[in-house]
User: What shape does this take?
Amino acid sequence: MSVHTVRGSLLDVSLGSASSFGPVARASAVTFAVALTAASAQFTVPVPFTAVPFTLTPLVVLLTGAALGSRLGAVAQALYLAAGIAGLPVFAPSLILPPGAARLLGPTGGYLLAYPAAAFVTGFLAERGWDRTFFSSAAAMLMGLVVIYTGGLAQMMIYAGSFGAALNQAILPFLVADIAKVAIAAMLLPQAWRFLSSDN
Assistant: This one.
């Protein structure tokens, strides 16, 4: 049977019936996703007129969510937040944003708190085959990005004072770059499926 007709995440299908090392492989995949999210947050560029920096983190959140599936993708991002709350240097470095748990209460906290939900949504759609082609992958990633934007915008409104000001600080400066990230992720997933199919 072609992997393109099988329901499940890329991780689930790649592991197949290898039940003997499945739990170890899944735990390793989650750990890798946490580490990759933390590493992507370190590549940050300040953006004028907003406290929100440009990072690669949304790309990794969406990509790992799709690859791991809804449950494990959400778990990975929840563990990432837990590491940050515990004081580990996993959040984007910043001279103006608070460190540790206080980061979740700051102007960028809404994005961070939305990561588990965004990974879940993207993974949920991927498990149903949305990650098998470029356009459906892009649609799944955009759904996850909407979740991240919704969280970021909601919390930014507390600091910006109005919807318009929050929109200008939380979304508009990043929209083009984030759509480019979605396009990159949407190209990678079908390629991974084709590689997996060629091995079967």
